[in-house]
Amino acid sequence: MAGILKHLCDIDTPRVLVFGITGRQGKSRSRLMRGFGTEIVAGTTPGKGGQEVDGVPVYNTAAEAVAAHPDINSAVFFVPAGAIAGAAYDAMDAGIKFLVLTADGVATQDSIKIKEKAFETGAKCLGPNTVGMLDTDGYLFGLIGGKASWAKKNYLPGKVGVISRSGGLSQLLAAFHCRPELPGPKPDGSFGPLWGEDYPGLSAVLCVGGDPVPGITILDAARAFEADPRTEVMAIYAETGTTQENDLALAVKNGEIKKPIVVFLGGKFTEAGVAQSHAGAMIRNESETYSAKKAALEDAGVTVVDRPDSVFAATSEFIK
Amino acid sequence: MPALPEYKTRILLENHDVPLVPAVFHDAMPEILPEPVVFLKAQIPGATSRAGRGLVRRASTPDEIANGLRELLAEENCQGVLSAQAVDIKKEYYAACLLDFGDGENLPGGVILFSPDGGTGIEGRTSSLIKIKFSLLNPPSTDDIEKQLEGIPNSTELAEFLKKMTRTFIGYKLTVLETNPIAVLADGSHIAVDCRAEFEKHAVSRKNAELFKVPESSTSDSTPLEKAVEAINADDPAGTGFFRASREKAPEGTIAVATNLCGGGGKMLWEMTTGGRDDIFSLNESDTSGGLSGFKSYRILRAIMSQPEAQVLILTGSGMAFQNQYHLASAVWKALKESATPLPSLLRFGGTDQVKAMELLEQVSQSLPVKIRTFRPEIFPNAMVEHLSEIATDHRVQQKFTPEAGELAFEVKTPPARFIYHPDKNPDNIEPICVKECPTGFLLWENGRIVANPEAKCIGCLVCETVSILEGNGELTIELDLPGEVL
Question: CA dist A313 to A230, A306, B470, Å?
């Protein structure tokens, strides 16, 4: 079965180019990605072409790597924030269609330019400031999952599609749907196991990142899960700032998104104009407040919860 | 967002050939005074409504110029005075470049806001405002802009002026660039009379660092503990180590909580839990995440515990952290042992080695000077806080930790630490367990001494000290420096 990238950017099997593979993080994360099953074809670091990292060939540029390995269709970036725009252009110019930009602290102007370039080239960029994505079909990109053994134990195939603006909460929402006997508050007010051994499980988790200008948005991710036959329900961590939740609400309301959605909406006590730990959570106008987003989502028929442990009971209600 | 004062914004505009009113910057009383008539403008970063506050003055005589310069240079946080030549303005325009964040229908980009009626009251006036959206990747040409300026006199020259503004805005990756007013002179030319810029600190390139440097006194009212955490971040920059103390006192009858929140998700969970409660007062905001070392966790925990009003410590992340939880638990244990004012603690661990983390703290809990309670990640902060009142204290434990004397085995610089070997704890002179358990192979046992492996790297996990004490005989301890404000 094809994973979520089939529905996000028409990729059946991701074949990955790792930017910054010769750096400490690039090396270690590449090992973890491979340990989970991701097919890493090549790496790139300017000036280090010709080297190998754990048997993976390194090239100076994406163009060189794609020329040598035409099957490369996706890329993950372990490069500093200041270098991310140039590296992303390099990948998109080489024809790569799916990019995962993990860097935190990317200039907003660079995020916007990357988004413009992606629009021009037809590429999809997850991030910046994302922990990445994981599909239980057997691949992951970025920092998500930790050790392969830990990831394989925690993220198990199933029916929930997770989207999140927070790295930690993407992992939480994904992994907890895969825990047998997960305790939590039930709809009847009692507290106890929400399900037995037969946990709902995960189709895929996409962290859209915490920046003000995400590449792939919550709505883009929801469209992919809508098309993904494994996914029966979506669990989303959303928050104040940006128009992403409002755009999702509109798409649900106009019938474009039909699958049930449970949103854990953060930022109930966030004040307008105050910097948050996720830069994208800053409220710029009334429509970006907690109350406006909650109203828009609920009006569209989306289930909104304001306690994280209420998500799981709510999603399990929708699973056949 | 940090803001640049006018005299620095002028440099950005000059570098992109934007015409400016002639002006000279004085950071001290000049030997030769400028020729009248001039406008004297105090250059104070972040200052707004300068005219109303007397920070902009028209000076028509040498005496007025001398007195004005003297008085304005003495203003608090004043970096200098800009002496701008008075010009005969026939008309005023307003222009700004801003970021357009886009939405589900529209791509993001930049936008020029232009008003042919000048900038006075611009916030409340939208009817005459012209919005020209533009691409940051493919910036607009003069022609592109001129098409949007229908009916404005000398539109080609004005469009050229605005084009240069967009190049300045993009070239320095600004978030706001404002010229207010743009003056139209008798010959029809346009010049910027006043200007300001806002920027993101992380968008400033290394080569422009000096130009964008904003004095700390103008942007920071940091408390001593916040400065201590800034110092910790400076010598161990990997990972996020954010700490901000509340500027308010804990109200009577509330439980004053010191928080160590891990990651933006952890911070949001805590805010959602306590934002609507008036019986819990968070003494500080925090965020420790992004792969920080156990060494750094320990040092920031010590700062967090130093808050004198605190009655209890709460530590929680999202529940699926990146940081190895055993390393974090080792930092918590060390901080509780060594802090002069340890706090009773509610500790939630979730992520790799979460079980080992809880086992470690359960194993040592009886030896600690304060009560602790650990939580599995399935127990969320909204359930944790129900245990606050049973564990919070009105009487802080005071203790004095004296490190045992030993031999300095070696020091590491990043993350900074001193490794102290205690040969008296190893009378048989055999390889201690800390060497075997070092996860990166950084510790070696050579010729009866612990040495650093030059081929490996210390990740600051604290496992060596933890296993040395719990499973060995205390052969190795770690000394981590703390800024003086941390108890």
Answer: 19, 13, 41
